[in-house]
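Format notes (please read before filing issues)

Several people have asked whether sequences and structure tokens are stored in separate files. They are not. Every record keeps both together, in the order shown below: the sequence lines, then the token lines. Line labels are part of the format and must not be stripped during preprocessing.
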Amino acid sequence: MRVSLKTVSLGLALAGVLFGAADPATARDRDRTYSVRITNLTRGQVITPPAVVAHRSGYSLFEIGGEASEGLTVLAETGNPSLLAEEAELDPEVLAVETGEAIPPGQSIVVQITTSRRTGRLSVAAMLATTNDAFAAVRGLRLPSPFGPQSARAPAYDAGTEANNEACDFIPGPPCNDSNQRDAGGAEGFIHIHNGIHGGADLVPADQDWRNPVMQVEITRIFNNSDDDD
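Then the structure lines:
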């Protein structure tokens, strides 16, 4: 008996409906949740609440040698991640954004972030609180496969938006706790690796200085019963 290709195709389609064949698009678009563990590696700097951004490769948190965005400027000078998170959410290359809590020296926090994209990258930024405009950042760390975590260590960057006067009137972290003023007169004007605390005014290098790296980021895929092993 001759069977047409049309009949075979129809039969396969019906079988898929009856027996619940997996839809490749559905599997590809299933939400994926990641645990992001962020550790403060310094001895004397509080790391402020971080912004955690899942994104495609077209998004860049910043470029070394470039100017800080308004959101990154606010984060690096005050420790507030809200405006940077809002900026990221408006970028079509961004998949998801979360923020965390402050991290004391030697401690860790965990932030969960969920994205519908099968592959992507993660960037994290947070201020070193007892500075004028220093921040730690990991950029474009690949979201992990099911077979193992991803990790990276972050140096401290200078946002280049405020003078490094080390005066408490311009520093939000302890022992200063004041973020209401800014001294942009001597700012470098570009992002670069921070050169640390030198004791020019109110800060004490023995207490607040660091050696890079200052932050560690570890990403692990979280599974539930409905996940496959893609």
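For reference, the curators noted about this record: Strands lie at 32-40, 51-55, 94-99, 108-115, 121-127, 134-142, 150-154, 156-158, 192-193, 215-222. Residues 162 and 183 are 5 Å apart (CA to CA).
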